[in-house]
Amino acid sequence: MADNITPILELKNVVSAYGRIKALKGISLKVFPGEIVTIIGANGAGKSTTLMTICNIITAVEGDILYKGERINNIASDILPSMGLCQVPEGRRIFPRLTVMENLDMGAFFRKDAADIKHDLERVFELFPKLRERRKQLGGTLSGGEQQMLAMGRALMSSPKVLLLDEPSMGLAPLLVKQIFDIIRMINSQGVTVVLVEQNANLALQCAQRGYVLETGTVVMEDEADKLLTNPDIRKAYLGE
Amino acid sequence: MTTQESKKLWLSCGVGLIWFLIILWPLLGITPEGLEFGKTFKVFGYVAVGVVILMLFYQVQQAGKLNFVGTPLKATSVGIGKIYEITPRWILLGIVLALAIAFPLVTGRYAHDVSISVLIYICLGLGLNIVVGLAGLLDLGYIAFYGVGAYTYALMSLHFGLSFWLCLPIAGVTAAIAGCIIGYPTLRMRGDYLAIVTLGFGEIVRLILNNWMGLTNGPNGIMGILRPEIFGFQLNKLWMLYYVILGIAVFTILAVYRLNFSRIGRAWEAIREDETAAELMGVNTFLLKLLAYAMGATFAGFAGAFFAARMRFVGPESFSFLESAMVLAMVVLGGMGSIPGVILGVLALVALPEVFREFELYRMLVFGGVMTLMMLIRPAGIWPAKRVGRRSEEAD
Questions:
Q1: For position A3, what pLDDT does the model report?
Q2: pLDDT tens-place string over residues B6-18
Q3: CA distance A186 to B169
């Protein structure tokens, strides 16, 4: 990616901590508009913490988080969706006792442009036809894959510029995982920048243009996705060879 | 039913009866005069015979031998359900309202007294329902806001001679402020911790009322509070007061209904379901939780002001923890988040104990038993919140 384009999202030396235990020990990464960037790493490497820190659910202790060149460290989590930064958190976290429709409405909570919301709803239903069928069902009664679709649909209802996805493949059957990844590519092709955190490094690297490898709170490698895919160290450590 | 199933049924029934005997005997058998067995076994005998008869009925019914009664009964209940479904809601609500308005005309003083209690608790239950049922914040000190409302009117009336109608909104506002004061420090807490802090707050308010002699006259309470007036005419009959609280209750129901199905109501529900996810969807959880406390407290404040005007006396003992627990029980028993549920819960816990006055000493025992049974059989409440297909967006 050319250096003269400003990144849409940038982390500079970000440190964040749970109490006294540092989870991120100075992370720097860049995400350019229109990309799919993946963050891979083992359990406890700080992948989810990175996303939670970007969204200010966990506040960064040090460093800068820049969105469209503007520092967003101190912007409250609930303002970020209206700026175009939306996260699908780990474990889906849909609202189980709200209907599918209400869940989707919650995604557009801060928006007031009824016509555009309706348009986005149609777009979500096109991506996930299952959700249209089940729109009157309670979220908690959906299967795991459907819940993942609902979580992604809900995030899309905020019409994000940057979509942060935390482990979309978690606990899903291989066929469903493939479907979800196809949809991620489709969302990306509609102009949404995607940051993808994954345990399933193989699929994530196939899907992404660039990747970052996290180990115990630091970035140990960054490269084009296909180069990471063929890198022997990576293959050994994360792709089970 | 196979013999095996039937055996299992009778076995669990027998175990249940033995367990009942074990808890019954200490209650009835241990007396100041020594241990006694006769009374326990007499009561136990009645219960056991009753249970066995019911079990036999159940078995016969399972075997299909009672179908000649059961089938028509079922048909009628389905029929009633259908009538309920096709009748427009406003007609049903109109009938309920008409009954509520006609009620004092055909009943006596005692019924007025009980029904006023019921209506006060409906206001309290619906207010608490906002905090517990919608926003999912467990509040064990809710009655404090009722107390704040009551003392607000009591003091305003006593010192400034302000009228009830002027003080009603003021009581709502002071209670809302109290709600924000308790809400603010607890915003970062969840579940158990929140419950303990709200419990502490409720006690603090009661202790202030009890000990601030200069302001509240301490345990002696405040007497001589004015009754509500309309155009200089004092409403000093109970049935007149009934209409006042009926008005407040109807207002509360309408307001809570509107809130329930508004954007704010949905945001509250999202917070209840998953606070972090709600925040990630752009919900200002800080403000909305504070608002839930304030709104819930406001309705308790209204009810409190009326309570002061109705009793013409307020004392700290009316606002003990037991009251908070009762209101919470009404909400949970009736069905969290459901307006008709809360109303039924109030009826069950205020009106029924009055009906069962004959049980005297065993009233609370029966009460506890019924609560346990209810939570086992219908954990979502008498009338659970209907969550599907009620929002305007689904009209298409």
A1: 58
A2: 888 888 888 988 9
A3: 55
Amino acid at B3: T
- Provide the CATH number for the domain around residue B373: 1.10.3470
The residue of B281, B288, B391 whose CB has the most chain A CBs within 10 angstroms, and thus the best one to mutate to test that interface, is B281
Counting as low any pLDDT under 70, the low residues of chain B are 1, 66, 358-363, 386-396
Domain that includes residue A141, residue range: 93-150
Within-domain flag for B391:
no
Nearest to B282 among A99, A102, A109 (CB): A109
Domain of residue B20, residue span? 3-85
User: What was the pLDDT predicted at B375?
Assistant: 80
| B386–chain A Cβ distance below 8 A for any pair | no
Whether residue B71 sits in one domain with residue B146: no
Gap between the Cα atoms of B328 and B118, Å rounded: 15
pTM reported for the whole predicted model: 0.84
A35 in helix, strand or coil?
coil
Six-digit token string for B270: 């999202």
What is the sign, positive or negative, of the torsion defined by CA atoms of B88, B93, B96, B97? negative
In angstroms, the CA B368 to CA B73 distance is: 30
Question: How close is the nearest chain B Cα to the Cα of A15, in Å?
Answer: 21
pLDDT at position B1, please?
59
Question: Does one domain contain both B187 and B281?
Answer: yes
| Sheet containing strand A9-18, strands side by side | A21-31, A9-18, A62-67, A70-71
Residue B383, Cβ neighbours under 10 Å: how many? 17
Q: For residue B185, with 0-12 CB atoms within 10 Å meaning exposed, 13-18 middle and 19 or more buried, which class applies? A: exposed
Q: Are residues B66 and B125 in the same domain?
A: no
On whether residue B393 sits in a domain, the answer given is no
- Whether residues B266 and A99 touch (CB distance < 8 A) is answered with no
Quote the CA–CA distance of B215 and A212 in Å, as a whole number: 66
| Tokens coding A17 | 């901590």
Q: How many domains does chain B have?
A: 2
| Residues A159-178 pLDDT 10s | 999 999 999 998 899 999 99
Ranges of residues in chain A with a pLDDT under 50 are none
**Could B282 and A99 be called an inter-chain contact, meaning their C-beta atoms sit closer than 8 Å?**
no
Phi and psi angles of residue A193, each rounded to the nearest 5 degrees, phi first: -75, 135
- Ramachandran area for residue B226 (φ above 0: left; ψ -120 to 50: alpha; else beta): beta
Q: What is the ipTM of this complex?
A: 0.90
**Rounded distance, CA A131 to CA B143, Å?**
43
Number of domains in chain A: 1
